[in-house]
Amino acid sequence: MDAFDVIVIGCGVSGAAIAYELSQYDLKVAVLEKENDIATGATKANSGIMHAGFDPHPGTLMAKLNVRGSALAREVCRKLDVPYKECGAMVVAFSEEEKQILERLYQQGVENGVQNQEIITGEEARNLEPNLSEAVKWVLLENDSAIVSPWELALALAETAVKNGVQLFLNREVIGLKEEGSWQIETKIAEGALLPQGDTKETVFTAKTVINAAGLFAGQLRDLVLPHTFKTRPKRGQYYLLDKSEGTRVSRTIFQAPTGRGKGVLVSPTVHGNLIVGPNSEDVIGNDTATSWEGLDKVSESAKKSVPSIDLSQNIRNFSGVRARTDEDDFILERHGSYIDVAGICSPGLSSALGIGEYVRELLEAWNAESHLLNMQKKENVITERKKIRFKELSPEEKQALIQKDPAYAHVVCRCETITEGEIRDALHSPIPPVSLDGIKRRTGTGMGRCQGGFCGPQIARILAEELGISETEILQEGTGSELLVSEMAEKERLSKAPEGGAR
Amino acid sequence: MYDLIIIGGGPAGLAAAKAAWNNGLKNVLIVERNWELGGILNQCIHNGFGLHHFKEELTGPEYAARYIEEVKATGVQVRLDTMVLDIHKALPETDDAGLSGQDDLPIYEVAMAGKECGYVCEKTKSIVLAMGCRERPRGGVVIPGTRPAGVFTAGAAQRYVNIDGYMPGKRVVILGSGDIGLIMARRMTLEGAKVLACVELMPYSSGLNRNIVQCLNDYDIPLYLSHTVTEIRGEKRVEQVVVNEVGPDRKPIPGTEMIFDCDTLLLSVGLIPENELTKDAGIEIDRRTKGAYVYENMETSLPGIFACGNVCHVHDLVDFVSDESERAGESAAAYVLSAGKGEAADCIETKNMDGATYIVPQKIRPANVDKFVKLFFRVGRIFPKADIVITSAGEEVARYHKKFLAPGEMQNIVLTKDQLQKCKGELQLTVEEKVEEKEVRA
pLDDT at residue A9 above 80? Predict the structure, then answer.
């Protein structure tokens, strides 16, 4: 295979944003992802907030890229049809001492370029958010932040990048990385991995430049290349996701005044209409995304402080995500020759993603100014728009017309979220086709509702098996090795072998 | 315009359809989201159905087939593979003519999507809600740990085994002793899996006693009462679950951990009536049953809309679903044919007091009661012996002696019209525990 101009390692939201940005230039770009789908790390397990940007210290990359990234997201989410809603946020203070924190945040906001923020009394805040605790004394109100579907943003960016010519290689875990004139990247395909149709199965790649966007594993990858300068300190955050019946408990994201242990527990509506509650912050070793009694208790206790009436019995799912913190207080976006680290992308990483994409492109331009090895001209024809069919959001007339065109849209598979077979088939024919139930869930929303896939799981497994041309026993929940079913039943096997038939 | 649209073609919908037809409605439509009628009975291939209703023992599919045959013999119309998306009152100006032509009964519109019918909005004079229930998922009970493949609700596992022909696991722990969990303990065992334990948070099972005997005891599957799963382990697939004993506060007791090596955890931790359509239509929901408030004729807070079966309150026996749903079908017919006449002003509310967790119906209009009314309820704990006492305005109206009351078994009592007429405003049902005489002597 010919050498690539750029290889991006890792396809979370940062890798996807970088690929999207670079796909608009005359570059030959590949993205290597170790899992069987993109956005399966921190990108799929965070709060889904586009922060306004009053939190990071002025002058940091975090401050700059958060504000820039959030601003870009407004436009990009609209054009790429990513669920996004400007709902604003409140940071609540329970005492006069905490009010000083709000004042500091306000000042930081001013310095970072946040507009539309003010400090109001608890009383005024409760007029806007009636379920806010009576104990809230002061509130920093801000109207610019938004909620977004993080994995759908990453998918939209990566799909569009692929449409613009970026090559995505899934199931490629990088095991070797060295520079010998150009970069030689050796990868390993996990045993039993379900490769997408047309996958060339190659494992060795060559590139002029390498971008390390490996998230939690960025430190390990960097150790293959350069001396150790930062240490990854993974921070886990646990969440509750509540049923839509709780989705209007608050209409803004409610933060607590930060007290040195991260931003604290938030309570927020999600773009899908649920209520998200979390995260706590705890040190873990590696990618440990389990949940625990202690962690969940801490989350529920803390959340009830801001919004006492939350009904946690409406919980439909707990999850946790591990943020790729390092021992440095800022994002690590550094170029060393033709190698770029994109490390330490913890919160506000999602908000900053599109800013990171731009920034990395600028770093590449700087390298190119020295080396002249890349053609960094903007392409003339690039795709920057995407449109998805979401049956439940259509008007009666549109529904009628759509079903007339393709009756698969009349078959509601996921009853909780009203997702049709047509939408599932669309996902399976998208630029990055999913190979697992969770892959379909991230693209269509199936199984995200109150029954959590109890009813639709078996039906989706059958559609997936049919489209991929595999047996249902090979269907994965998520990653390689997460087979859902262990075997075909003896009886079924016997019936299917019977000459007169009998199996369905 | 339809006389009646029935949402759901499971046992509740089928029984309602049959009764509505037999009571004179001729323009009846069943809307079913699955590709066949029968609902969840189709995957319940075990026996034990029909003992009350048909006085013989049938399997789930056999029970369903009896009703399907009966409905097929009528002129009831059926739309399969069709999902109801929305119910609303027709706007008055959409005349044919906003009214049903008889008095001023409301007309409803039912929006649905199906491969055959496309997206359509059908008008109807009455509706029976018969959407059934769904299983509570893992999030509903909060089990910490990892999130690997191999955690199924018992009903989803039952579908994989009995309909699709796949085994979801080989070494199984079951959390919750609801009936589906118990049935699946036996089913998985018969198919060669090893069921290591059935773990129940409460000090008693929420399943039928006969299922504990026939599905656990007969196969030497241990039932751990007052225990719960406290952690799921395994990255890709379930590898272990941790089980702890719980104290009287139902919190895990540290130090009582038992670790089971297994690849599958089945959840049988409760059923929830599926009332999203009901709520969206603005029908009042009872927090206790999680179903609609219903009158003695199964009518909801919206006139002409009835609810029956598991969408109204979760039953343990399909036989009682059928009985209740036939009453709903009859009531819908009476409503349409009498054009809503006989509207009764007086209404008694039923209220569960000590020992009972809910009552259906929640409201009774004595004028609409012919000879008697049945009250269905559940008790909150085990009572070896108890009196069910009905009082109103401080006066005892009726008393029933009962034995072996358990939360897993729905109870019913009959109130005669005479007794009902003694009630004013509110009727209270109390479970009074009785101590066995022998114990008193001892």
Answer: yes
Question: Does residue A260 surpass a pLDDT of 70?
Answer: no
pLDDT above 60: residue B94: no
Residue A501 has pLDDT above 70, yes or no: no
CA distances in angstroms from A490 to A250, A474, A494, B167, B190, listed in the order given: 52, 17, 6, 9, 12
H/E run at residue A414: strand A412-414
The pLDDT, as a whole number, for residue B438 is 61
**Can you give the pLDDT at residue B442?**
44
Amino acid identity, residue B48?
G
The interface predicted TM-score of the complex, written ipTM, equals: 0.93
Q: CB of B21 within 8 A of CB of B102?
A: no
Per-residue pLDDT tens for B406-415? 998 999 999 9
Q: Measure CA B345 to chain center.
A: 29
H-state helical runs in A429-455: 437-444
Is the CB of residue A31 less than 8 Å from the CB of residue A11? yes
List the beta bridge partners of residue A318.
A240
Q: Report CA-CA distances (Å) from B156 to A187, A234, B166, B173, B202.
A: 38, 36, 11, 15, 23
Domains and CATH numbers, chain B: 2-133+272-343 (3.50.50.60), 137-269 (3.50.50.60), 352-441 (2.60.40)
Any residues with CB less than 8 A from the CB of A451 and at least 6 apart, and which?
A415, A416, B134, B135, B137, B153
How much is the pLDDT for A499?
Answer: 52
- Report pLDDT digits (tens) over A342-374: 999 999 999 999 999 999 999 999 999 999 999
Cis peptide upstream of residue B361 (ω within 30 degrees of 0): yes
pLDDT band at B207 (very low <50, low <70, confident <90, very high): confident
* Closest Cβ opposite residue B33 in set A313, A415, A457: A415
* Contact (CB, 8 A) for A132 and A253: no
Task: Say yes or no for a CB contact (<8 Å) between A454 and B156.
Answer: yes
Q: Which residue has the tokens 């065109």?
A: A405
Is the model's pLDDT at B92 over the cut of 90? no
Closest B-chain CA to A405: B118
Q: Are A409 and A420 in contact (CB under 8 A)?
A: yes
Q: Provide the pLDDT confidence category of residue A390 given band limits of 50, 70 and 90.
A: very high
Closest listed residue to residue A4, CA positions, set A258, A338, A394, A317: A338
Flag whether residue B340 sits within 8 Å of chain A, measured between CB atoms. no
The top-level CATH class assigned to A89-143+233-316 is alpha beta
What is residue A269's predicted lDDT score, i.e. its pLDDT?
98
Cβ-Cβ contacts under 8 Å, A483 against chain B = 149, 237
Tens-digit pLDDT profile for residues B237-277: 999 999 999 999 999 999 999 999 999 999 999 999 999 99
> What CATH architecture does domain A1-83+147-231+324-387 belong to?
3-Layer(bba) Sandwich (3.50)
Which residue in the block uniquely carries the two structure tokens 């290597």?
A32
pLDDT over 90 (residue A498): no
Per CB-CB distance under 8 Å, the chain A contacts of B144 are 290-293, 295-296, 318
Token pair recorded at residue B296 = 């003695």
Alpha-carbon distance A175 to nearest alpha carbon in chain B (angstroms): 21
Q: For residue A351, what are its two tokens?
A: 């908000």
> How many helical (H) and strand (E) elements, i.e. helices and strands, does chain B have?
9, 28
Retrieve residue B53's tokens.
């209703």
First to last CA, chain A: 45
- Tell me the backbone φ, ψ of residue B232, rounded to 5 degrees: -110, 130
Confidence at residue B351, expressed as pLDDT on a 0 to 100 scale:
96
